[in-house]
Amino acid sequence: MDPCRKADLHQQSFRGKAASKIVIGPGCVEVPEFYEGLDSPVEVKEELVKDGKLSVALRCQRFRQFSYEEAEGPQKVFGQLWDLCCQWLKPERHSKEQILELVILEQFLMILPLEMQKWVREQCPETGNKAVALAEDFFQRLPQEEQRVSMDHFHVGHPSRAQAMPKIEPLIKVHTGEKPYRCSDCGQSFRYRPQLVIHEGTHKEEKPYKCSDCGESFSQTRHLVIHKWTHTGERPHQCAVCSKSFNQKSDLITHTRTHTGEKPYCAECGKCFTYSSHLTTHKRTHTGEKPYQCPDCGKCFISSSHFTTHKRTHTGEKPYQCTYCGNSFIQRSQLAKHERSHTGEKPYMCSECGQSFRSFNLSRHQKIHVKGKL
Known about the structure:
By secondary structure, the protein is mainly α. It is built from 15 helices and 18 strands.
């Protein structure tokens, strides 16, 4: 057989080796040495060789067939997957780093030993770096003798090569903004399946830490500690400029912007926002994106808060109760407005004459000044 059609690639580990190149026959295709991991011998079919380069099919095959045993430890496994995926997807031409990382994260989790995979998945890592750190942490917790055991003794979690592999979502989704994966619990949509899987874990996670004051439950002790400060009044994070205190560091960071003048702004219209989350929601007014869809009526919403409020129209839930008369309301703003009927508070002051009003009455009053200037 023509040496350009067949390569005797001997199986061997490429731990620690650079991706040096070997030549299949004189003047033929150069193949990276790590393709030695393919079954030997491998017939290099004509359709796999185009213009002196490995075809997309072969690059994809190598990425898909990579297994945990081919490298030493989680860090090197992830690094090898990164290199193989770069050769396959050509992110410098077709994609972005975030898309590449999602594909690698899915494959990385898939090929971890089952014991390690289960533990890492339970932590819901959002990036490859987090997944690697979790896998390394799991590995370090093992006794030294278990770390030295051959990986053949583990139940490796990747599918066999005969099984159908999940398809990679088309790159066109990056450009169209299509988000076909929708959460059945809250209606939020995602572009890629791994994003949905990670998100769904936030609905299913256990919340064993319960507040003894109000009964609210939390998934982590630190969240419970922060919550308890709302009852005790403790505010450990103090502003160095004005000494105002906050119970969460994120609130302090937001507050410091009132001193520095820094505000995230919209590149489309220039509007500024104190909170980055508000900017994210605002950007959707330009794109028309409404990622939160009600499973009951199909109506879509621009933000999760609007969606949460809407759901109460179906459930009848009215969580905000007036302490004066016991009436309940769907929104906090409705409660605040109602309570002013009991307190007589008029927080909105006219800038022209200084008279105070409730919000609706202020708008009506200001028309008097406008007419007087005409």
